[in-house]
TrEMBL record:
A Pfam family hit: BHD_1
GO BP term, pick one: nucleotide-excision repair
A GO cellular-component term linked to this record: XPC complex
Molecular-function GO term, any one: damaged DNA binding
Region span, Disordered: 1-72, 353-375
Superkingdom as given in the UniProt entry: Eukaryota
Record-given protein name: Transglutaminase-like domain-containing protein
Length: 532
């Protein structure tokens, strides 16, 4: 007990000594300031970094397995896209089935049907919207499963016809396409595929309709009808999706660019382009393909560039109906003809560019220039022949008035045009006359001039820049016996030109170094004379 009390007394003495020394720590022990700074300067302890693991090299078997895995994934990707393309074509073909057309006409009110047929570019959105709402409200629920479905597969058609629009967006889009095509509108079924998504969410369907020169984008499932694809992009589309469109002819088109979709990855772009080209080439000769709809354009101006139909009043100056042409329909009281019965007329010079010549004794069927219009076709033909004979117009001839062009020999000279050039447009070597050789190069004329060899410039096309058309020439045409000499001289001319170019370049380099040296000397002189 005495020892404990003595220790307590020592502690009290020490605390008291600290207070007596003027310590301001309120009874706390005094610490050395140097020790505090040393503790603050001490760096924190860092854990030692774990040793880096060496990258193990793959064995030959592992490399081969990885290659096979990549190959398998690529094949699975292409198989999914191929199935998507085949399914989209099948669904588009079902839209042209007669049963689908009749059912679509039955579910669309007569007033909406008439408005859609007479729609123009200004009111096309309202007409398409009315048809879309009619298709969404009644989706052919009255058809029995045993009804004859024409060319479409029974299971696919029944599933599309019996499912309400709010549960199956594909049925609504297909029915809308069938209704629009029945109204005479050029409608395409559009689908998207996201290969990275599984299940039913991988693909979706909507449609595009063209009225005149305006496109309308319709999402039948969501009840949206817009004039810009960007409005669909914000709500519907996936950035990694394939987006394809199928028209009434069964042709497939990659329209992902219109929707800002990333589309095919790099490894399958070439494969996709080849697949679309093969499918579209086979669609024209496919025996089971549904026939294209016989939809007429909705305006008179649309007949001017329509691919299937034409009006006599809308034919261009170079177009003419064949003698065997028969009207296939009427539009506002005017007979409508098939586009295949319209022939394109060309001048003699144009037919020569197509490797054909006009037969002797042929009368022109049209003319460029002059005034030959007359209500009587016989009088009009006489006016055309008279204007062409007197040189007031250039005659136009049909393909049946021509024959294959046989290149004439150059014994009497080169076949030049009015400007003295030999026309070999687009670099077609078949147009080189026999007995002549085409020596290419813009400096070939210099070689011919140095040898005094007869030649003729070659016209290969025209360049159109800033509203001006300028001829584009490439090389000259020489006789076969002079070709070797011209080629050797051309090599010598090019070698001389190359040496001259190098000499000029060296001279310019020497001049620039001299200018730099004079500048440096002048700077030193000025510094010595006037100071820094």
């Amino acid at each position: 007990m005495e020892q404990a009390s003595s220790s307590d007394d020592e502690d009290n003495v020490n605390w008291a000594a600290g207070d007596a020394a003027g310590d301001s720590s309120d009874g706390e022990p005094v610490l050395d300031e140097e020790d505090d700074e040393a503790e603050e300067r001490a760096p924190p302890l860092q854990e030692p970094a774990p040793p880096r693991k060496k990258k193990r090299r793959r064995s030959k078997q592992e490399t081969e397995a990885a290659r096979l895995k990549t190959r398998r994934r690529k094949l699975e990707h292409e198989a999914a896209v191929a199935y998507f393309l085949a399914r989209l074509r099948l669904l588009s073909r079902w839209c042209d089935d007669p049963v689908a057309r009749d059912a679509a006409e039955a579910c669309v009110p007569g007033r909406a049907w008439r408005n859609m047929r007479e729609a123009t570019e200004g009111d096309c959105v309202g007409a398409v919207t009315a048809v879309m709402h009619a298709c969404r409200s009644t989706l052919l629920r009255g058809l029995k499963p045993g009804t004859k479905l024409g060319l479409a597969p029974a299971s696919l058609a029944r599933a599309a016809l019996a499912t309400p629009a709010e549960k199956d967006e594909g049925a609504a889009a297909m029915l809308l396409v069938a209704a629009l095509r029945g109204c005479g509108v050029d409608a395409r079924l559009v689908g998207q595929l996201d290969v990275h998504t599984k299940g039913k969410a991988r693909g979706e369907l909507w449609c595009e309709a063209r009225v005149g020169r305006r496109f309308v984008f319709v999402d039948a499932a969501a009840g949206t009808c817009v004039l810009s694809s960007e409005q669909l992009t914000r709500t519907r589309l996936k950035p990694r999706a394939y987006i394809m469109a199928c028209d009434a002819n069964g042709s497939l088109y990659d329209v992902g660019v219109n929707y800002n979709a990333r589309g095919a990855p790099a490894f399958s772009r070439e494969w996709l382009a080849d697949a679309l080209r093969d499918i579209n080439a086979a669609s024209s000769s496919n025996p089971w393909r549904a026939p294209a709809p016989d939809a007429l354009p909705t305006s008179i101006g649309a007949f001017r560039t329509h691919h299937a139909f034409a009006l006599r009043s809308q034919l261009l100056r170079r177009e003419r109906l064949k003698g065997s042409a028969q009207p296939v329909a009427t539009f506002r009281g005017e007979p409508v003809f098939a586009r295949k019965d319209v022939e394109t007329l060309r001048t003699k010079a144009d037919w020569a560019r197509h490797h054909r010549r006009v037969k002797d004794g042929q009368q022109p069927r049209g003319a460029l220039g002059g005034s030959q219009e007359d209500a009587d076709p016989i009088v009009q033909a006489g006016n055309v022949a008279l204007d062409v004979a007197e040189g007031r117009a250039v005659g136009l001839y049909g393909e049946d008035q021509t024959e294959p062009l046989v290149q004439a020999s150059i014994d009497e000279g080169f076949p030049t045009n009015e400007q003295g050039d030999v026309e070999i447009l687009n670099g077609d070597a078949r147009r080189v006359p026999p007995g002549a050789t085409w020596v290419k190069g813009h400096d070939a004329s210099k070689a011919c001039a140095s040898l005094s060899v007869e030649c003729a410039p070659v016209l290969v096309g025209f360049d159109r820049r800033r509203g001006c058309t300028r001829p584009r020439k490439d090389g000259v045409l020489v006789r076969d016996e002079d070709a070797d000499k011209v080629v050797e001289e051309l090599r010598r001319v090019r070698a001389v030109a190359k040496r001259k170019s190098i000499s000029q370049k060296r001279s310019k380099v020497h001049q620039r170094w001299a200018v730099l040296a004079r500048g440096l000397l002048s700077r030193d002189v000025l510094r010595e004379r006037y100071g820094a």
